[in-house]
Amino acid sequence: MAAVSILLYSILIAHAVAVVPQINFRLDTAPTLLPPSIARNLGPYAPYFNATTYVPPPSSCVVTQVNILERHGARYPTQGTSDDAQATISKIKKIGVKVDSPLAFIASYEWDLGVEDLLNFGAQESYDAGAIAYQRYPSLFSTFSGQIPFVRSTSLPRCVNSATNWTKGFEEASGRSFTFPPLLQIPKKDYNNTLDNENCLACTDDIAIANRDEFANHNFVNLASRLSAFLDPSYLMGGTRMLEVTDVINLMEMCAFDTVAKEKKSPFCDIFEDGDWPMLEYYLDLNKFYGSGYGNPLGPIQGVGYINELLARLTGNPVKDDTNTNRTLTSDPKTFPFDRPMYANFSHDNQITAIVSAMGLFHDADLPTRTIDRERTWVSSAIIPFAGRMVVERLTCDAGGEANVRVLVNDAVQSLDFCEGVTEDGLCTLAAFVESQSFATSGGDGNWDACFATPAKSHQT
Ligand SMILES: *[C@@H]1O[C@H](CO)[C@@H](O)[C@H](O)[C@H]1NC(C)=O
Ligand SMILES: *[C@@H]1O[C@H](CO)[C@@H](O)[C@H](O)[C@H]1NC(C)=O
Ligand SMILES: *[C@@H]1O[C@H](CO)[C@@H](O)[C@H](O)[C@H]1NC(C)=O
Ligand SMILES: *[C@@H]1O[C@H](CO)[C@@H](O)[C@H](O)[C@H]1NC(C)=O
Ligand SMILES: *[C@@H]1O[C@H](CO)[C@@H](O)[C@H](O)[C@H]1NC(C)=O
């Protein structure tokens, strides 16, 4: 009996003093999966990468609150993407490939990818993110009681699993056992969910599809001919068309999906040359920009609810929002607490692009659809790669001074040009930041009503 208690006691002690836990980070190996010339041109299908090295705030500042908005980690393709890719692969098999061509492997390629679910690689991205969240801000958790992060997610399994893997990474990095309550899941299909963009019924994919297709039809034709030359030429005799622009895009996207699923560089990547990849990035950038970003009149409005919740958190005032905030949730301290030093929310690329646009980040007035705009700030792989994240830090600089904010996207400090008095370190006073968010505080200039003007199909996330 005594021996058992001593054993138990030593286990507890061992646990309490384990301050340097083993964390098996995988992010460090992600860059070796694909060269940057490919990985950084995969738009929202890019494996997570930090855009720069994290720069801590100036030493006179103390971080007092952290708000994390994170995309789920790498997943299998959606049903639509999967169907399209399989159609292209079947077509190529049917036509036949030239041996020794970069398409030769397709003759024996067996489809074995799942649909939509979080991958092990994606779980690891989320786990790493949780570990980093602790390691970066340990002082927020120096006293134990109640100071655990508040974690919320949409209810789709890939988001839930991302959130729970994040929590695990956070806990293991801390070397302590925080007791997280059950994850607060917000049903995807419920209206007024600030983490999901299916609320704005009048917003369709039409604008995004028209613009990205215009780009593809002007820019991918040569590539389609180049790849067609790798197919059996005798098939052409029948007068059947060879590869289309859409086939090229499907093959390029397969490079992304097959690589993260198998955790090694896919042969689909070797079909292409370095100079081809920026075209894919731009095509995918247009899709997001005109989907729920600045290019869609009903894009940024969908991010207003989250921004208003964020302002509530930062200022400690109740949420004031007439768009997609669910008031049942935000008026209850159990589902909308104000006493935590860290809040983490798991969401989708289309919703996060709406939110960064509502805030004013990565602003481009519009993007041309015939040629690549190489001066653009809107690069989706740098905004919403898998496990991409926006972190809003609240800080006090110079003891007793005013509250400030700093915004980081994938570790890159945002210049917040829209925030009056912002410093070179990206610090802006909270008061000026709130002032700068008039699009959100005004309810999105009345755009929310337009979401309900004509009932129409909503987005895929
Ligand atoms: C990402 O962060 C790591 C660790 O701080 C750093 O070594 C690496 O250079 C960063 N990546 C880029 C592209 O700056
Ligand atoms: C992490 O994600 C994986 C893959 O989705 C899932 O199987 C696993 O249950 C998750 N682990 C935790 C601790 O949530
Ligand atoms: C608000 O959230 C609650 C709790 O999840 C849910 O029961 C309710 O249906 C939501 N309301 C709306 C309008 O979505
Ligand atoms: C994340 O979601 C929760 C639940 O609604 C909300 O309380 C919190 O404010 C959100 N985080 C931020 C930064 O808005
Ligand atoms: C959800 O949004 C609609 C449309 O603006 C609004 O009428 C409704 O009151 C909101 N519901 C909740 C629970 O916030």
UniProtKB/TrEMBL annotation:
<dbReference type="InterPro" id="IPR000560">
    <property type="entry name" value="His_Pase_clade-2"/>
</dbReference>
<feature type="disulfide bond">
    <location>
        <begin position="419"/>
        <end position="428"/>
    </location>
</feature>
<feature type="signal peptide">
    <location>
        <begin position="1"/>
        <end position="18"/>
    </location>
</feature>
<comment type="subunit">
    <text>Monomer.</text>
</comment>
<keyword id="KW-0325">Glycoprotein</keyword>
<feature type="disulfide bond">
    <location>
        <begin position="255"/>
        <end position="269"/>
    </location>
</feature>
<dbReference type="GO" id="GO:0005576">
    <property type="term" value="C:extracellular region"/>
</dbReference>
<protein>
    <recommendedName>
        <fullName>Phytase A</fullName>
    </recommendedName>
</protein>
<dbReference type="GO" id="GO:0016158">
    <property type="term" value="F:inositol hexakisphosphate 3-phosphatase activity"/>
</dbReference>
<dbReference type="GO" id="GO:0003993">
    <property type="term" value="F:acid phosphatase activity"/>
</dbReference>
<keyword id="KW-0964">Secreted</keyword>
<keyword id="KW-0378">Hydrolase</keyword>
<dbReference type="InterPro" id="IPR029033">
    <property type="entry name" value="His_PPase_superfam"/>
</dbReference>
<feature type="active site" description="Proton donor">
    <location>
        <position position="349"/>
    </location>
</feature>
<dbReference type="Pfam" id="PF00328">
    <property type="entry name" value="His_Phos_2"/>
</dbReference>
<feature type="disulfide bond">
    <location>
        <begin position="61"/>
        <end position="397"/>
    </location>
</feature>
<keyword id="KW-1015">Disulfide bond</keyword>
<keyword id="KW-0732">Signal</keyword>
<feature type="active site" description="Nucleophile">
    <location>
        <position position="72"/>
    </location>
</feature>
<dbReference type="InterPro" id="IPR033379">
    <property type="entry name" value="Acid_Pase_AS"/>
</dbReference>
<dbReference type="InterPro" id="IPR016274">
    <property type="entry name" value="Histidine_acid_Pase_euk"/>
</dbReference>
